[in-house]
Amino acid sequence: MKRTKTSKAWMKEHVNDFFVKQAKKEGYRSRAAYKLMEIAERDHLFKPGMTVVDLGAAPGGWSQVAAEKLMGKGRAVAVDILEMAPISGVTFIQGDFREASVLAELKEQLKDLPVDLVICDMSPNITGIGIIDQTRGMHLAELALEFCTERLNSGGNFLVKVFQGSGFDEFFRAMRATFDRVVTRKPLASRGRSSEIYLLGLGKRD
Ligand SMILES: C[S@@+](CC[C@H](N)C(=O)[O-])C[C@H]1O[C@@H](n2cnc3c(N)ncnc32)[C@H](O)[C@@H]1O
Known about the structure:
- This protein is an alpha/beta fold.
- It contains six helices and seven strands; from the N terminus they run ααβαββαβαβαββ.
- It has a seven-stranded mixed sheet, with helices on both faces.
- The chain is globular, with a radius of gyration of 17 Å.
- The mean pLDDT is about 95.
- Bound molecules: S-adenosylmethionine.
């Protein structure tokens, strides 16, 4: 696309294109990997030895970043409806996170390990009907928060993708009731999708 005026469309294409190329060059499976890297660096999310759960993990960019940051120490468990090619240091569960059996399998994998960090990049299949997509997206985020309530360690952190729109304010309030601090993050690699934003809950309350 030719740069004429300071067009938003040009910026969107340009930024997306840059991260797609960068991911190819550096061996990441998605440009989304750069979103997590940026947030993780800024907010010091990872430490070797942690237990991390990655919800909506395929094709695996975030899981790759998590595995790198754990440096072979700790545990990473990833879930997605879609298949995901193996990543060293990551246990993968294929299934729908909305289903009780998948949640049970995740808990089984984690056993009694305290979970230090939950990262959730789940997005539903887009129908193009705004209210349906928004409702489905918020539902996935709510389920992930519910999982945190139950399984995240006291003091643990939760990074989740949400879409601004219906249900956002209620979800934000629920996050604030669960964590000591909640901040919003809009990493550079996310600029293209206007309503997508990341919420980071820091320090799960007892
Ligand atoms: C944007 S992609 C995640 C990209 C990933 N973070 C990466 O870096 O490669 C969103 C993922 O959410 C998954 N997803 C959507 N609904 C899901 C559900 N109910 N259970 C599990 N995964 C789901 C999709 O299959 C898709 O792979």
